[in-house]
């Protein structure tokens, strides 16, 4: 969609990819019960009209609080986790804008498609079978989930569980809204290191054993995640808070590219590799301080001017791209190169 003129707002906000489509979709769908999309539309128009030095997001906070009834966001003004807020925001907007909300839904058991392993005689046949299974799971998902939020932000993961006793495996194709990746250690690392750690096999033992359908009992198992389908806009959450209550923060510097994030190496889907997905950064949510006491800022790209800005409460300042990467980065916002 077309961006607004460069002189419309020099430092109001970074316009996220596809936001024009979100605004149009929100305007065309009136009187939803929670109406998070309408509040978001109003906020974006205020940010981009050029008439205000700063804009309070009180309306969208109230709407998300109503949607997340019973959570810490309901009616509260205290600081909460930005990643959790983003999840509630996107989920609420999806529900408001879901084009399938009045349609006949598939059985909920088909929301993610599970496929028991079969013997494959040739790698090419196995790849073809996987393509068919993944495509079917995606079509089933889109039968009940069809919104601009899904169009822009949702991808697909392949999850394979393998029993360590009998080697039986089961494959599930699941939609994802963002990648929540571990910060690998207390030393400086790269985003590629975090993505590799996210895709490492996980051992399911003890209380986490898998109920193997072939053994009819709980067994040690291996869980393997693979990226199968990538969205146009990729959200990456850096898991900086650990422990049962999230009380410990990992403050390592994660080096991530501002432009040219090539995810080809992380994709198992051969069809996707033939159409390489390279991403550019357009926003960063930063967290400073401890888990129980901190401060959020944002670094956002104004696409029409190609200028980065730092948003710190009601203060906005220009920054250089080199200053976007810092140890405070918490959520990364990427969009696919056109």
State the gist of this model.
This protein has 338 residues and is of the alpha+beta class.
Walkthrough of the structure:
- The chain is an alpha+beta fold and 338 residues long.
- It folds into two domains: 1-99, no CATH class; 105-146 and 154-336, Cysteine proteinases (Cathepsin B, Chain A, Alpha-Beta Complex), CATH 3.90.70.
- Helices cover 26% and strands 30% of the residues.
- It contains eight helices and 19 strands.
- It has helices at residues 19-28, 36-48, 58-67, 82-97, 123-144, 148-153, 191-198, 270-273; strands at 113-116, 155-163, 169-176, 179-182, 189-190, 202-204, 210-212, 217-219, 221-229, 233-239, 241-242, 248-249, 254-255, 261-262, 278-289, 294-302, 307-312, 315-319, 329-336.
- The strands form five sheets. Strands 4, 10, 14, 15, 16, 17, 18 and 19 form an eight-stranded mixed β-sheet that branches. Strands 1-3-2-9-6 form a five-stranded antiparallel β-sheet, with helices on one face.
- Helix 1 (19-28) packs across helix 2 and helix 2 runs antiparallel to helix 3.
- It is globular.
- The termini are close together.
- The model is unreliable at 1-17, 28-32 and 103-112 (pLDDT under 50).
